[in-house]
Write a structure and sequence with these properties.
Elements (H helix, E strand, L loop, with lengths): L3 H4 L1 H5 L6 H19 L8 H12 L6 E7 L5 E9 L9 H11 L3 E7 L9 H15 L4 E9 L2 E4 H4 L4
Parallel strand pairs: 3-4
Antiparallel strand pairs: 1-2, 1-3, 4-5
Helix pairs in contact: 5-6
């Protein structure tokens, strides 16, 4: 989980200076929001909600992380897991490990997400390729991949919204 003080970097990066009281209030709000969204059974009802949740968790990481949100048949959150951790510009992703975890959790669907520490949320050819591979692997066990989010600082890209889901 991201250190709450790093989340405040998002404000600094946007040129917003916060008082000590505002920082403490925001730290507490981040904790409450994360707890509410991580609660099993929380409904992920929109791409904006997912992107906001992921920004809180991985936007300011100095290295790439690949996260999978495992969902039930009603797209309610079962679990959020950081599956892979990489370097400043890449993370090795193994579809087999995602399949194993989806089976263990009895997931019906999932949402993929990873960050770009560069702050640029544009998908690379490698991002498109791994999305295709993970989706194909999960299709074999009848688990739907609903979306793949790239988080770059305060911006994001949703593959589903852009029509990039294979």
């Amino acid at each position: 989980m991201l250190n709450p003080s790093h989340q405040l970097d998002l404000f600094r990066d946007c040129g917003v200076e916060l008082s000590a009281h505002e920082k403490q209030t925001l730290r507490e709000a981040f904790k409450i929001l994360k707890r509410a969204l991580r609660t099993p059974g929380a409904a992920l009802t929109s791409p904006e909600l997912v992107s906001d949740y992921m920004k809180l968790n991985i936007a300011t990481r100095p290295h790439e992380v690949f996260v999978v949100l495992f969902l039930d048949n009603q797209n309610r959150l079962i679990d959020t897991q950081e599956m892979f951790r990489g370097t400043i510009n890449a993370a090795s992703v193994y579809p087999r490990e995602i399949v194993k975890e989806a089976l263990r959790l009895n997931a019906a669907a999932c949402i993929l997400a990873h960050n770009h520490p560069s702050g640029i949320a544009e998908p690379s050819v490698a991002d498109l390729d791994i999305t295709k591979k993970v989706k194909q692997a999960l299709e074999l066990i009848e688990v739907r991949v609903l979306d793949h989010f790239i988080i770059g600082g305060i911006s994001h890209t949703s593959f589903a919204e852009r029509g990039l889901m294979p």
